[in-house]
Amino acid sequence: MTGRHAQPVGDAPAGGVTYAAAGVDTEAGDRAVELMKDAVRATHGPAVLGGVGGFAGLFDLSLVARYRHPLLATSTDGVGTKVAIAQAMDVHDTIGFDLVGMVVDDIVVVGAEPLFMTDYIATGRVVPERMAAVVRGIAAACSETGTALVGGETAEHPGLLGPDEYDVAGAATGIVEADDVLGPERVREGDVVLAMASSGLHSNGYSLVRRVLEVSGWGLEREVAELGRTVGEELLEPTRLYTRPCLELARAEGAAVHAYSHVTGGGLAANLARVLPTGLVAEVDRAAWTVPPVFEMVRRLGGVPWEDLERTLNLGVGMVAVVAPEAVDRALVALGERGVPAWVLGTVQADDGAQGPDVVRGTKGVDGGAVRMRGAYRV
């Protein structure tokens, strides 16, 4: 007893305590794997070794021989409380696009090509069809981005999560040539900031949005003319995947992409400031685009101040590119040809050190450049 005195214990219940009685159904987990494994296999190319269900995924890295100085890039994330919308609507095959978007497109920001991804799903009760739908969405998004889904885990947590609750997270790894890394070191005064349209809320700010719906009394089933569908359908719109368009643009002849910024938690200004060097400021015109109706709906219903909305939601801009001025027209055409609406947001200038509510600098621990938001939004 390793130094402890044995203590008598009470009688076990009749029949004994089983794992199933504790709330964990291993057979349901096995059925879930059977339902999802074909979708997972569809993401595997020749570099993936072994099948579904191993203790670890194997990826053949002999491709690094093509690189002079290969760097691995990695990222991990989840989708936040957007899963509550999926659970409320009982629609589970789109949340995987949000997960892949949040993880893989962070890797793309540095110019890295995604190689593989793993996922983790925690749930109060394994419903095989539900878990398989989630993973099928992840696999479909991985296929769209050229990412192999090499492993994952579904964990049953009775008592910690409700029977119909789950949460998802993932991690991905990519590769980039050291000479091709994008970021603040490449950005120059006179560069132009381009916006790429979001598909909606993406996966950020849902705690605010859900609270607004709660205080307004609006339900997910409510039809909204401005949206052309129900509130729930709008909120569940999958995150746009920028992976292939951004990688193709960065590699295109004469594209002169210097940096990307993925507009996630914190909004446009806070994320753009992370990819600017000290001494430069991006001047962004709020009137450069029309804010999509869903954001105006949230603002109006909740009386949310514009400054709070701006710090929380993407407001219609999901990814930003900083490019050389001579490459602007080519970049806009290239993105449009790949189905991504894009437009000019502003320019990069010398930082005059100005302060104020419209200036953002030093976000998320990054000692970098600044962003000054000018004008008013169009709705």
UniProtKB/TrEMBL annotation:
Boundaries of each PurM-like N-terminal domain copy?
72-176
Q: Which reaction does it catalyse?
A: 2-formamido-N(1)-(5-O-phospho-beta-D-ribosyl)acetamidine + ATP = 5-amino-1-(5-phospho-beta-D-ribosyl)imidazole + ADP + phosphate + H(+)
Molecular function (GO) terms listed?
ATP binding; phosphoribosylamine-glycine ligase activity; phosphoribosylformylglycinamidine cyclo-ligase activity
The biological pathway it contributes to is: Purine metabolism; IMP biosynthesis via de novo pathway; 5-amino-1-(5-phospho-D-ribosyl)imidazole from N(2)-formyl-N(1)-(5-phospho-D-ribosyl)glycinamide: step 2/2
Keywords from UniProt, A to Z, are:
ATP-binding, Cytoplasm, Ligase, Nucleotide-binding, Purine biosynthesis
Localization (cell): Cytoplasm
Q: In Gene Ontology terms, what is a biological process of this protein?
A: 'de novo' IMP biosynthetic process
Principal EC category: ligase
What EC number(s) does its UniProt record assign?
6.3.3.1
Q: Name one GO cellular component term.
A: cytosol
Q: Where is the PurM-like C-terminal domain?
A: 188-353
- Fetch the InterPro entries from UniProt: PurM-like_C_dom, PurM-like_C_sf, PurM-like_N, PurM-like_N_sf, PurM_cligase
The protein's matches in NCBIfam families, at most eight in alphabetical order, are given as: purM
HAMAP family from the xrefs? AIRS
Q: Which family does it belong to?
A: Belongs to the AIR synthase family.
Q: What is this protein called?
A: Phosphoribosylformylglycinamidine cyclo-ligase
| Protein source organism | Actinotalea ferrariae CF5-4
Which gene holds the coding sequence for this protein?
purM
